[in-house]
Amino acid sequence: MPSIPRLELDTTDHAIIDCLQKDGRTSVAHLARVINLSASATSDRVRRLTDGGVITGYSITVDSEAMGYNVTAFVRLAYPTGNYKPFHDLVDSLPEVIEAHHVTGADCFIIKVLARSMRDLERITGRLATLGGITTSVVYSSPIPSRHITPA
């Protein structure tokens, strides 16, 4: 099966990506000054990176506690069947599930959950447990909550 061709990225592309990861609201004019290109050439580069699937979107970062979610947890799910539709249906119905990863090993999924309280976490994990065995780890703190991607 052929793989999707990757864009060849140069140092200018990396500089654009780095700048936009730090501030996705950066204007093209400011970005052009930072990378030392014209605004039109910079705009073309950003469009190429977007069309090529390197830049997949722009978003904001929100403090979960400010939104009322005081508990963060990771739930490992040992899913007993290869029919993943019930899993997808359930996590689609739980807005507190903010990430789900299909993984190797004894567990099938690792799920990141935000909850309003421990009682709320119990409700969410109770619903997830209807699909298979779960193990829940509550987060004390996140010294590296997320990291920008650097060139491979």
Q: How do the strands and helices of this protein lay out in sequence?
A:
Blueprint: H1 11-22, H2 28-35, H3 39-51, E1 71-78, H4 85-92, E2 97-102, E3 109-115, H5 118-128, E4 133-138
Antiparallel strand pairs: 1-3, 1-4, 2-3
Helix pairs in contact: 2-3
Organism: Glaciihabitans tibetensis
Domain HTH asnC-type: 9-70
Protein name: AsnC family transcriptional regulator
Task: Write up what this structure looks like.
- The protein contains 5 helices and 4 strands.
- The protein has about 150 residues and is of the alpha+beta class.
- The chain has a 4-stranded antiparallel beta sheet with strand order 2-3-1-4.
- Helix 2 crosses helix 3.
- The protein is elongated.
- It starts with 10 loop residues before the first helix and ends in a 14-residue tail after the last strand.
- About 15% of the residues are buried.
Keywords:
transcription, AsnC family transcriptional regulator, Dimeric_a/b-barrel, four-stranded antiparallel sheet, 18% strand, 2 domains, alpha+beta, Arc Repressor Mutant, subunit A, 152 residues, Alpha-Beta Plaits, DNA-binding, 5 helices
CATH class of the largest domain: Alpha Beta
Radius of gyration over C-alpha positions, nearest whole angstrom? 20 Å
What structural class results from the helix and strand content? Answer: alpha+beta
Binned strand content = 15-25%
User: Could you give the count of β-strands?
Assistant: 4
> Could you name the CATH homologous superfamily of the largest domain?
Lrp/AsnC effector binding domain/regulation of amino acid metabolism (RAM) domain
**Overall pLDDT level:** 94
What is the overall silhouette? elongated
Level-2 CATH architecture of the largest domain: 2-Layer Sandwich
Query: Count of helices?
Result: 5
Show unreliable segments.
Answer: none
Helix content: 25-40%
Distance between the termini: 23 Å
In total, the number of domains comes to 2
Oligomer: single chain
CATH topology of the largest domain: Alpha-Beta Plaits
Largest sheet: 4 strands, antiparallel
Order of helices and strands: HHHEHEEHE
Main sheet strand line-up: 2-3-1-4
Domain HTH asnC-type: 9-70
GO molecular function: sequence-specific DNA binding
Pfam families: AsnC_trans_reg, HTH_24
Keywords: DNA-binding, Transcription, Transcription regulation
